[in-house]
From TrEMBL:
Keywords carried by this UniProt record: Signal
Domain of life of the source: Bacteria
UniProt entry tagged with the keyword Signal: yes
Descriptive protein name: Secreted protein
The keyword Signal belongs to this UniProt entry's keyword annotation: yes
Signal peptide positions (record): 1-28
Organism of derivation: Nonomuraea bangladeshensis
Length: 163
């Protein structure tokens, strides 16, 4: 009997709150994006020193969970990297992705390289349980991976931070 009264009171409260809501507030509440409806975030263009390389694109985070550690289930990063050097250098877009592993937040690097002068290279990558995504754009010689100078000198640009 007590549970029935509590549920009835809750239903009356919810109904009266909905009736008291102004049309503008109701429309705003209806158009608030949910975790499943996250819109793509446009990022860039970001440049390497001297504008020797350029990176730009979109980032989409879906399924944000704020229960224990705030993370997104899936983050998709897509875009282009363009080399603007006439020499043997390449343009690098280096992403530092911080993800959840148990109760820890380790990170890993993902990079995209373009060595073709003024011909953008398209890329798309997905990561799971993502807390933060940062970007650094560099120009360096062609190699299997970016140098320590590219990874550790300068500042990272934050593209996404789960809140």
């Amino acid at each position: 009997m007590t549970a029935t009264r509590a549920l009835a009171a809750l239903a009356v409260t919810a109904t009266s709150a909905a009736l008291l809501m102004t049309p503008a507030a109701a429309q705003a509440a209806a158009t608030q994006p949910t975790a499943a409806q996250s819109a793509p975030i446009t990022w860039g263009p970001y440049y390497a020193p001297g504008k020797a390389a350029k990176a730009a694109g979109k980032l989409t985070a879906t399924g944000e969970d704020h229960a224990d550690l705030p993370t997104a289930d899936v983050v998709t990063i897509s875009g282009t990297i363009q080399d603007s050097t006439k020499s043997a250098s390449c343009g690098w877009a280096v992403f530092r992705v911080t993800y959840r592993s148990g109760s820890n937040l380790p990170n890993r690097n993902h990079w995209v390289r373009d060595c073709s002068y003024r011909t953008p290279k398209h890329f798309s990558v997905k990561h799971h349980d993502v807390y933060q995504v940062e970007l650094k754009v560099c120009t360096e010689a062609k190699a299997a991976k970016p140098s320590l100078n590219c990874l550790y000198a300068g500042t990272w640009k934050t593209l996404y931070l789960s809140k």
